[in-house]
Automatic annotation (TrEMBL):
Record protein name field: DUF3077 domain-containing protein
Region called Disordered, residue ranges: 1-22
Superkingdom of origin: Bacteria
Record organism: Pseudomonas kilonensis
Record's compositionally biased regions (Basic and acidic residues): 13-22
Pro residues bias locations: 1-10
């Protein structure tokens, strides 16, 4: 049995519309939106922390950064002599105290039982 069906509509081949659609698609993927003026960071700010990061993650990263700084200053202090060595150990003590404070805050946010 033969069923009569209409032919599908012919695609629109207006070259101008086709070019506009192509340009929109390419611009969407290849030209990201520029931030609006109120979203731009000050030019003097080199680094920034992404908005929306939870406090626990921030404190955990702070603690890890302080541990790294502690290790670097400790290594440096053993290569120094005299008053420079005492200064390096003083810096190391401040870093360690800051790390203890960050860890205490981290424990109060996420108590580990």
């Amino acid at each position: 049995m033969h069923k009569v069906t209409p032919n599908p509509p012919e695609p629109e081949t207006d070259p101008k519309k086709l070019q506009e659609a192509t340009d929109r698609a390419l611009d969407y993927y290849l030209k990201p939106k520029q931030p609006t003026p109120e979203e731009k960071q000050p030019s003097s700010q080199l680094f920034t922390v992404v908005d929306g990061i939870d406090t626990e993650s921030l404190l955990a990263n702070l603690s890890e950064n302080l541990a790294s700084a502690d290790a670097m200053v400790s290594d440096l202090a053993f290569d120094l002599k005299g008053s420079r060595r005492h200064i390096a150990f003083g810096i190391q003590q401040l870093i360690e105290l800051s790390r203890l404070l960050a860890n205490r805050m981290l424990d109060s946010i996420n108590p580990q039982h």
